[in-house]
Amino acid sequence: MNLKLQWLRNKMSSLNLQGMIISNPINIKYLTNINAEGTLIITPKENIYITDGRYIEDVHSTLTLFDEIIVYNVNSVSKDDYENFFMFCENVGFEEHYISYATYKDYIRKFKINNFIETEYMIEKQRMIKDEEELSNIIKACNVTDECFKYILGYIKPGMTEKQIAKEIENYYIERTDGLSFETIVASGENSSKPHAVPTDRKIQERDIITIDMGCIVNGYCSDMTRTFFVGEPTDEMKKVYDLVLANQKIVLEEYKDGASTRQITKMVENNFKLNGYDLIHSLGHGVGLEIHESPYISYRADSFLRENMIVTDEPGIYIPGKFGVRIEDTVQITKFGCISLTNSEKNIIMI
Amino acid sequence: MNLKLQWLRNKMSSLNLQGMIISNPINIKYLTNINAEGTLIITPKENIYITDGRYIEDVHSTLTLFDEIIVYNVNSVSKDDYENFFMFCENVGFEEHYISYATYKDYIRKFKINNFIETEYMIEKQRMIKDEEELSNIIKACNVTDECFKYILGYIKPGMTEKQIAKEIENYYIERTDGLSFETIVASGENSSKPHAVPTDRKIQERDIITIDMGCIVNGYCSDMTRTFFVGEPTDEMKKVYDLVLANQKIVLEEYKDGASTRQITKMVENNFKLNGYDLIHSLGHGVGLEIHESPYISYRADSFLRENMIVTDEPGIYIPGKFGVRIEDTVQITKFGCISLTNSEKNIIMI
């Protein structure tokens, strides 16, 4: 059986769950590599994936014998099959955030479940800690992102539109990876003051500030990096804000380590910004993995602690409405005594 | 209060519901025109929309005094507020298909709800019957679709790619409407044998068969039309299949009327196809409104009856794997004694 399913069965056993129904498609992908619509059923004896005709062929080509997963077409699962899956199970786990109340009731009826137990993001919590294969995929995605950024710096010329630059990044990624991990942000001039700007037809001009937030997917795993740079010399105000953001981005890298409190680190950056008259208006970072945004979330609201082999971003930003914004972001691996930045593009002021 | 909220309150009253929580964003749009993320709360005295900072401004600009909807920022709703909303309510309705089991439990706790009652697609069922304003929007979307099809027939030339044609349709719609109601299908040659083909880089050739499935949105309401046509003369086999599909598409138009059984009509087409050695591999049609696919679903599985002022599609198709496919589809208004086709593009064999 594959290692992740083995982990799941051990975890279930420790919680006295004899069966489980997994509905979150990302969790299913994590456990099985299957990228489809369906439900994963862990019974005392078997691992069963129930899907429909559209996906059967594709699912079979994804799985290996080693996975030990039986694939069923939903149309061929009988009333008796449903009742037999959890026949001798006292407790069956489910993902309470990923099935509707109607489905919850339907499952209890259809599977004849005795005790249907909420599993409280059990798999999502495990997904925070990456194994070697996951790390290797994320590192690859980060490497291509560094290379893409280097390429795009040479590509950008005044007169090009933000959309054109975003398209070039997309093409670069599509040729080398499984594609974008999110819609690329290319925000120039005053557009950079919006943290979630969408590329427009605005043309790059002399003396522009440009923020690019970009990432790709390798074997399902994401990268995420932001750099802010300049066409020619930045203004004094831009330089001052850039230096403040960069200094804080670097301090955070020094604080990130196994056991560090995400709330405390966020508070520190907030205070540093406030002392200089600015606000931190978004969270400081987030986990990266099969999803571009996943647990842990690094903000003052989340009271969580970093752990070895978590992959998180470090992305402070300052936004001056109607004028400009600066954000600098790396994807980072947490280690026992510190962290390793997986994106390594230039962070000192870049002028093109 | 707006008419749709008045309908809802009457309906609730007939079901002995003193309050209701509405979670399906399309239902909220239907009742209020609000297009955002949030929850609509119907209390005995007030209509309340709870959203977050990202949407507040936009929601306020959508609503009029006539709507009688109070907008709350979720961050400013206190524990007491939640408990007061349904204070004297015996029964509160909810949408069991649109909240997770976790949210269901959270609501009961937070709102201190006595009896939380499933409402069984109550609003979706009402949405099937369109009022005058809805009809007028759908008719506009269908008119632009006819015009767009006429335009695109003149635009297509051998050597163009499917993607290029799909892009031209998108541009046509974007200039005149609120955009596409779904990703346009342009499927040429052997690609037309896939009902859900995605436009590729395949170039249109002489003697090609081309299927285009297209639609746009006007004030939130969708249109949906498919035509299959030919570059030059079709083969005898193509002609035979085309005539069979068209004959059935027209018979269905004669059968569509208030009271007609969707299952019987589907069975009829299936039988006609079978007699000629073909299968009907997808449903015969679906409702069209705020969603491109909504109730009623017209297939042998659904046992429902058409009603006056439902808007549905009529879209039989035959697909010969690896060779070609033919689908002809109109968006249609059901009337007391028949139906009115709202898309009216040419259906006799078109050769470009």
Walk me through what this model shows.
Two copies of one chain form a homodimer. Chain A has 352 residues and is of the alpha+beta class. The first copy, chain A, has two domains: 3-127, Creatine Amidinohydrolase, Chain A, domain 1 (3-Layer(aba) Sandwich); 132-341, Creatine Amidinohydrolase (Alpha-Beta Complex). Helices cover 35% and strands 21% of the residues of chain A. The first copy, chain A, contains ten helices and 18 strands. The first copy, chain A, has helices at residues 3-14, 25-32, 56-62, 79-85, 101-110, 122-127, 132-155, 162-176, 236-255, 262-275; strands at residues 19-22, 38-42, 47-51, 69-73, 91-94, 115-118, 185-188, 209-214, 217-218, 221-222, 225-230, 285-287, 294-298, 311-314, 317-320, 324-327, 330-334, 339-341. Chain A starts with a helix and ends in an 11-residue tail after the last strand. The A-B interface holds A 94, 96-105, 118 and B 94, 96-105, 118.
User: Averaging pLDDT over every residue of chain A, what do you get?
Assistant: 96
Strand percentage of chain A: 15-25%
Largest interface: A-B, 12 and 12 residues
Sketch the topology of chain A as an H/E string, one letter per element: HEHEEHEHEHEHHHEEEEEHHEEEEEEE
CATH homologous superfamily heading of the largest domain in chain A: Creatinase/methionine aminopeptidase superfamily
Q: How would you classify the helix and strand content of chain A by structural class?
A: alpha+beta
Radius of gyration of chain A: 23 Å
Biggest β-sheet: strands ordered side by side in the sheet of chain A: 4-3-2-1-5-6
Report the sheet with the most strands of chain A, covering strand number, pairing sense and barrel closure: 6 strands, mixed
What CATH architecture of the largest domain in chain A do you see? Alpha-Beta Complex
Sum up the overall morphology of chain A in one term. elongated
* Overall helicity of chain A: 25-40%
